[in-house]
Queue: 2 jobs
Job 1
Amino acid sequence: MTPQTDTEAVEAANTAFYEAMERGDFEEVSDLWLDDGATPISCVHPGWPVLSGRGEVLRSYALIMANTEYIQFFLTDVKVSLGGDVAVVTCTENILSGGPAEDGAELGPLVGQLVVATNVFRRTSEGWRIWSHHGSPVLTESDEEEDEEPGA
């Protein structure tokens, strides 16, 4: 087995983050965030204010996991940029999620969403850890808007 390049290691850490979210594994999500006691972490979920510090960031993930029955991420356009001990990953999160089931159903209604994300990682003695996450919703035009002719 050949050792991973830094790019491969960052890609693996990024993938592990999304897979832990899909499994609802709060402990693993927590372990993937930087925790050096000195560097504050930050997170912006789509439509949320900036969350700063380990307590606020991890509380947000606990809330999301507690209120999301099902979530699956299909990552596209993944790009890794390295600069020493810092890496930036940009990607599109194609998200399929569902809330709690109602009226005896097995699964709540599923909703699809596109989010563009930037994940900043820092190299630590334990491997690459997330320093910051920023997700922004992708706003798409409706079919009606696309069908309209200019000047109509």
Job 2
Amino acid sequence: MRKVISTGSPLEKAAGYSRAVVQDNWCFVAGTTGYDYDTMVMPSTVEEQTRNALATIEKTLAEAGFDLASVVRAQYIITDAADAGRVFPILGEFFGDIRPAATMLVAGLVRPEMRVEIQVTAYRGEGKTNALL
């Protein structure tokens, strides 16, 4: 079973991608930046952008029948290494008890106002646990 999820952003069709793809017990959420999709405004701070990106991801996962606790892999991209200390506490709020396998990279993003992009993979199925070691 394959299902695509869209935020309705015209960029998704123009660039040929989906906000998320559900395949069987997996949900692959595309890199998500900090836009507020209701207003299509990008906040100026990395903290606000991080919260917006995570809210979009959480909404996308819910639409796909998943939740944040289903996230098993995360990739974080920031444009300035100095922002890591600002982003880490917010990631901890959302993922502190879930603790997905994660990678953070420092790289340029498509538009200069973008300061963070987050991509996640979620899984639901038999044998899923949330035990902390």
